[in-house]
Write a structure and sequence with these properties.
single chain; 11 helices; 10 strands
C-alpha cells in the first residue's frame, strides 16, 4: 500500500510517501522556524501563511522524489490534530481536495500517536507490548501505557508547559535562538549541571504528571534576580543551561521509572523532538539498563509526514473504509 502523508500541525509543512507503513520513499519538510525565531516561539498567523505557500510544492516534491503518480497512491493520511487550528485546516483541506480529485480514500491521524509510531517504523520492531510511551515535544509531554498500536491508556501529562516549550522559553531567557532545545543542549556541554539547585515541579494529585513552570521561574531568578530587574554579578549561562537541562530531563526519567513500576512493561517507546537530546538518551540507558528502549530516528523525531503516512497504513488496515469528507480538525485530541 502506497500512502501519501500530510503534516501541518504547527510550523512544519510535511509530505511523505511511505510503502506498507515502514518503507519511506520520500519525506519532505518545509519549516517556517526561521520566521518565528525573532518571536522566541511559533507565531500562528505567520505559520499558516507559510503552510499555504508550501503545501502544494511540498506534496509535489515528495511524489517526485518517490517517483509515484496519483494513480500509484492508495491512501491519503493527514494529521487531524492536535495542533494550531489554522495550520491543521490547511493540511486537512489539501488532503480532502486530493481525495476528491484522485478518487482516493483518506484518513485522519492523531499527531501525538504518530510521534510514537515513528519509533516503530524500523522493520525490525517486533511489537514489544505492553510498553510505556513517552512523548516529549514542543507541544506535548505525555506518559502512556501502549497495549497495541491504537490502544493507549494515559498515565501522566504536563499541567502547564510542555517540556519542549520550557526549553524554548529558557533559551529566550539565556539569549539563545529559537528553537531552543538544540542550543541549550550544546551550551550545556560547557556547563556544570550541579551549579544551580533547580527543582522540577510536583503535582500532588498525580505524581506521574509534570510541571515545568516553577523550574522556568528558577531559571528566571538565576538570570535576572528575584525582582526580575537584573543581577549585579555575571551569571555563567552554560551552568544555567546545564542545570536546567539536567533537572528537566531527570524529572522525565524519574516519572517514567515510576510509571513502569505500575504495570508490566516490556519496553519504552519514545516520540517527539526532545527525544533527539543525547543527554536524555544517556540518562534512560544509565537508569533503566534492563529495558528495551525504542527511539525514533533523528529525522523522524521532529514533526514530519512519514510518521503520519506510516500510521495511516496501520489505521487503514483496521478501518478499511477510511474517514468521511466531513471529518473536522481537532486542536486537542485525547489519546486513548
Amino acid at each position: 500500500m502506497i500512502v501519501l502523508g500530510i503534516e501541518s500541525t504547527c510550523d512544519e509543512t510535511g509530505a511523505s510517501i511511505v510503502e506498507n507503513g515502514v518503507r519511506i520513499l520520500s519525506n519532505v519538510v518545509a519549516s517556517s522556524a526561521d520566521i518565528h525565531e525573532r518571536f522566541g516561539g511559533v507565531f500562528p498567523e505567520l505559520a499558516c501563511r507559510r503552510h499555504i505557500d508550501a503545501i502544494i510544492p511540498v506534496i509535489e516534491e515528495a511524489m517526485a522524489k518517490a517517483n509515484v503518480t496519483p494513480d500509484d497512491v492508495d491512501l491519503i493520511a493527514v494529521a487531524k490534530g492536535p495542533g494550531l487550528v489554522g495550520a491543521l485546516l490547511i493540511g486537512m483541506n489539501a488532503a480532502k481536495g486530493l481525495s476528491i480529485a484522485w478518487k482516493k480514500p483518506f484518513i485522519g491521524i492523531n499527531h501525538v500517536e504518530a510521534h510514537l509510531y515513528a519509533a516503530m517504523m524500523d522493520p525490525s520492531f517486533k511489537n514489544p507490548f505492553p510498553a510505556l510511551g513517552v512523548v516529549l515535544s514542543g507541544g506535548h509531554t505525555l506518559l502512556l501505557k501502549i497495549n497495541d498500536i491504537g490502544s493507549y491508556e494515559p498515565i501522566g501529562t504536563t499541567v502547564d508547559d510542555a517540556i519542549g516549550e520550557a526549553f524554548d522559553k529558557v533559551a529566550t531567557l539565556l539569549g539563545l535562538p529559537y528553537p531552543g532545545g538544540p542550543h541549550i543542549e550544546r551550551l550545556s556541554r560547557e556547563g556544570n549541571p550541579k551549579a544551580f539547585s533547580f527543582s522540577a515541579g510536583r503535582v500532588k494529585k498525580n505524581p506521574l504528571c509534570f510541571s515545568f513552570s516553577g523550574l522556568k521561574t528558577n531559571v528566571l531568578y538565576a538570570v535576572k534576580g528575584q525582582n526580575g530587574q537584573g543581577k549585579t554579578e555575571i551569571v555563567n549561562r552554560a551552568d544555567v543551561a546545564a542545570s536546567f537541562q539536567e533537572t528537566a530531563l531527570r524529572d522525565v526519567v524519574l516519572k517514567a521509572s515510576l510509571a513502569i513500576k505500575n504495570f508490566e512493561c516490556r519496553s519504552i517507546v519514545f516520540g517527539g523532538g526532545v527525544c533527539n537530546n543525547q543527554r536524555l538518551r544517556d540518562l534512560f540507558s544509565e537508569t533503566l539498563p534492563e529495558m528495551d528502549l525504542f527511539w525514533p530516528p533523528l529525522n523522524l523525531s521532529q514533526d514530519n509526514a512519514a510518521m503520519i503516512a506510516g500510521l495511516g497504513f496501520q489505521k487503514m488496515i483496521r478501518n478499511p473504509k477510511g474517514d468521511l469528507l466531513d471529518l473536522e480538525v481537532q486542536t486537542r485530541i485525547p489519546i486513548a
